[in-house]
Specification:
By secondary structure, the protein is mainly alpha-helical. It has one domain. It is built from 14 helices and 6 strands. The strands form 3 sheets. It has a two-stranded antiparallel ribbon with strand order 1-2. It has a two-stranded antiparallel sheet with strand order 3-4. A two-stranded antiparallel sheet has the order 5-6. Strand 5 and strand 6 form a beta hairpin. The N and C termini lie far apart (about 55 Å).
Length: about 475
Amino acid sequence: MGDEALLLARAQFAFTVSFHFIFPAFSIGTASFLMVLEALWLKTGRGVYANLYRYWLKIFAVAFGMGVVSGLVMAYQFGTNWSVFSDKAGPIVGPLMAYEVMTAFFLEAGFLGVMLFGINQVGPKLHFFATVMVALGTLISATWIVSTNSWMQTPVGFAISDKGQFVPAGSWWPIVFSPSFPYRVVHVVIAAYLTTSLVVAGVGGWHLLRDRTNLGARKMFSMAMWMVAIAAPAQILAGDAHGLNTLEHQPVKIMAMEGHYESHPHGAPLILFGIPNPAAKRIDYAIQIPKMSSLILKHDPNAPLGGLDSVPDDRIPPVPIVFFTFRIMVGLGFAMLGLALFGIVMRVWHKLYDAPWLYRLAVLMGPTGFVAVIAGWVTTEVGRQPFTVYGFLRTAQSHSPLQTSAVAASLASFVIVYFIVFGAGTYYLLRLMAKPPAPHETEPAAIPQRAAGITPAPAFEGVSGDAH
C-alpha cells in the first residue's frame, strides 16, 4: 500500500466519520430536549409541550436512524483499511467499543421502540422512563466513544505484548479515564447540546418570521435561546480547560493550532489570522496580539511557549488544516455567544417575540453547530498526526496492505451512496422542520393512565393530532 492508498484511506475515514458525527451530535441534544419537553408536559399538562414533543420526536427518529446506519461503516473500515491498527490496538479499543454496544446501544434499542411507538400504548410514567433511558443511552454512547478516542490521544495504562499489541497493564480505570477524557467528554456533550439548541432556535425563528403568534414556535424558540445562553459561554470555558490539558499532554498540537513555528521564550503572540507557510515555516500576513497566547495558555504574558522549531519534522501535523479549522471552531463559538447575548437583550427588553432580526440571525446560525463540531473534530484528529495512538503507533504503520485502486473504488462508492442516502434523509429532515408546529395552546392533555395495549382516552388523541 503506497502513499496514495494511505492518503485515500485517510480521506475515506475522514469523510465517513464526518458524516457520522453530525447525527450523534444532533441526536444527543435532541433526546435530552425531548426528555425536558415530556417532563414539562407531564408536570403542567399543557398541550403545547405535547405538540412539541410529537414534532421533534419525528425529527429525532430520522436523525437517530441515520446516525446508526452511518456508524456501522466505521467498524467496517477498521477491518478493511486499518487492519494493522485493529490488530495492535484491538485488545484495548475493542473492549471499549464493546462496552458502548453492551451498555448504550442495548439501552437505546430496548427503549427506543417504546419511546417512538408506545406513546398511546403505555402509561405516562413508563413512556417518560423510556424517553429518559434513550437520552441517557445517547450520553453513555458518547462517553464510551470519547473514552476510546481519548485513550488514542493520551494513551496510558497499557503495556506492549511480545506480539506488539497494546494490552492493559492492570486496571482498566486509567485506560477508561485517560488524562484527556474528562475535558473532551464535557466539550463534546456541550457541543451536542449547543448544536441542537441552535437547530431548534433556527427552526423556531424560521416559523416566527412567518407567524409570530405561533405558540409552538414561540415556546421552542424561547427554550432554545435559553440553552444557547447557557451552553455557549460554558463551551468557551470548557474549551479553554481542554486547551490547557492539550498543552500539557499534546503540546505539538497546540503549536499547530496557534501557528507557532518559532519558540517564544519571553511570551508568545496570539495569531488571530494568517496564512501558514509550511515550506518557510512561518505564518504569512499574520495579524497577532503580542504575548496574548502565553496569557491564555499559561496565564502569564511573559511565560515561554515552545514552537515547531523544537519538534522533528516527522512529528509535525499538517499545520494549515489544524490552524484554519481551529479558527473556524473558535470563531463560530464566539458568534454563538453573540447570538446568546442578542437573545438575552431582547428577552430583557420584552421583545423576544418581536425581534425579526434575531429570528433571521437564529436561522443563519442554525447549521453552524454542525460546522463547529466538524471543525473541532478535524482539529483534534489531524492535530494528532502522524499518530493513531499518540506517540506510539504511526498512521503510516496502521493501514492495511491494499491497492490504491481498491481504496479509490471504495471511497468513490461511499461518496456516491452517502450523498444519495443521507442527502435524501437530510432533505426529509428539512421538510419535517419546514412544517410549523401546532399554532395554538390546546386543552390540558389527558395523559393515558392505563396499561400497555389499552387504547387511551380520546382527549389525548386530540392533542396528538394537533402535533402533526
